[in-house]
């Protein structure tokens, strides 16, 4: 599905991602944990092909195709998309209008009625923003979705509601969850969890519970020398 | 006149056709000037062409006027007068256009609208011109006590030169809500829009949306003058689509009453890269994303249903 091979990225001349390797197979859920400013969101934007993220080394392979130099929309056509942490507000553009343009799949949700005729993200609450994002990506019928800090700014009730929507609508899709809080892990139970610190993946493991417990107790610094570090099997 | 079948006043070049309407008097302006002595105080001068609409009772469907240029080198000078009686509700769609692109027409229109006490008028004003035309549009609105006006002007095909002057005078407890939408391409637009709050609890809102495309220049001066304790808000937004276009947005607030409250917001800029990239991450190409942003910025194109037929707000003919 997605293979990130030795990827290095610069933004404004600064090295942000350093030789990242990541492989996500069909139907797998991966979580990428890390403290603020560790480079997690940069990985999202680079994988999606945003122009300010300059790949200085390595490549991104999606379904066997090298997409490192592809435009954003070309990547989306191949089946990948992302839920962003801070999607922009778009004055004048109603959510219904955007969905009309992009939808490959219809979604019927009662909660959505309140959002459809509103301008995208203008005056949306945190939960409404996330719902709008999730509905947009589901409507694209993707095979791979990145969720950037989905749990940020959400109460438990909303998080549970949205993750259950994801489980229903994106069942068997490949997912990369980006988070630094870890609350979402309990709801989506990743197959593999990775820890990123200072632009590098320092730890990968199938035991997400143990990784998260370690982080909760010792913080992210502990991950640098943790014994699980080479324990990915 | 293909699609404007139900228009109440149609003027092609200088020829007119009028359809009668119950509870409304519709005449040519010269005829009204002759027949109603009282109308003379409202006409700026003796009119040679234009329409007169006097709405005496509320109507439940829109009145439509259409003034078109269809021949080469026509010069029109319509002087229009609209009077809405007390407590009456009315809706008017006013269309001015050139039916072809290269007619080199000249349209100098002057319209005066009198909305009497507690009346309510919703007016949609559509312009569509060819590149060789020059247009000068003057509008004056007089809102009596408690009157309400909603005025939506849209011109997405601007002539070579467009000059607009709107002046609105509000008495006590009257209110106006203006939306002006202009897309300029290879054009010069000069717009002056003033709202005078002359009575207490009067309320004026003006929203101006401008798009400057290829070699266009827009000067938009919007002003609210509070002479009494009213409230007013200006909202001017401009979007530049081309490097060789420019927009000067000049919002001005003049407050002459300590109990009045006036506010404004203004922004002019290009389409945000962040928004473009976001929409591309939804699978749209850059051009598709720009189209979507621009159409959102300009507002929805709502079809207008008139007696079972549809007149598109994008215009026709």
- Name the beta content range of chain A: 25-35%
Stated plainly, the CATH topology of chain A is called Rossmann fold
Structural class call of chain A reads alpha/beta
Instruction: Report the span from N to C terminus of chain B.
Output: 6 Å
Largest interface: A-B, 25 and 23 residues
Number of helices of chain B: 3
Runs of chain B with pLDDT <50, length 5+?
302-317
The CATH class of chain A is Alpha Beta
**Helix and strand string of chain B, N-terminal first?**
EEEHEEEEEEEEEEEEEEEEEHHEE
Return the domain count of chain A.
1
Instruction: Using the CA coordinates, give the radius of gyration of chain A.
Output: 17 Å
The total number of structural domains of chain B is 1
Largest sheet of chain B: 10 strands, mixed
Major sheet summary line of chain A? 6 strands, mixed
Q: What is the multimeric organization of the chains shown?
A: heterodimer
CATH architecture of chain A: 3-Layer(aba) Sandwich
CATH homology-level superfamily of chain A = P-loop containing nucleotide triphosphate hydrolases
Form type of chain A: globular
Which key terms come to mind for this protein?
heterodimer, A: 233 residues, alpha/beta, Rossmann fold, six-stranded mixed sheet, four-stranded antiparallel sheet, 8 helices, globular, B: 317 residues, mainly beta, ten-stranded mixed sheet, 22 strands, 54% strand, disordered C terminus
Overview of the structural elements:
The complex is a heterodimer of chains A (233) and B (317). Chain A has helices spanning 40-48, 72-78, 95-102, 113-116, 126-139, 156-169, 183-188, 208-218; strands spanning 2-11, 14-24, 29-33, 54-62, 65-66, 80-83, 144-148, 174-179, 192-197, 200-205. Chain A is of the alpha/beta class. Chain A has one domain (2-230): Rossmann fold, CATH 3.40.50.300. In chain A, the strands form two sheets. Chain A has a six-stranded mixed beta sheet, with helices on both faces. In chain A, a hairpin with a 2-residue loop joins strand 4 and strand 5. Chain A starts with a strand and ends in a 15-residue tail after the last helix. The mean pLDDT of chain A is 90. Chain B is mainly beta. Chain B has one domain. Chain B contains three helices and 22 strands. The longest helix of chain B is centred in the last third of the chain and has 13 residues, at 286-298. At the A-B interface, helix 2 and helix 3 of A face helix 2 and helix 3 of B.
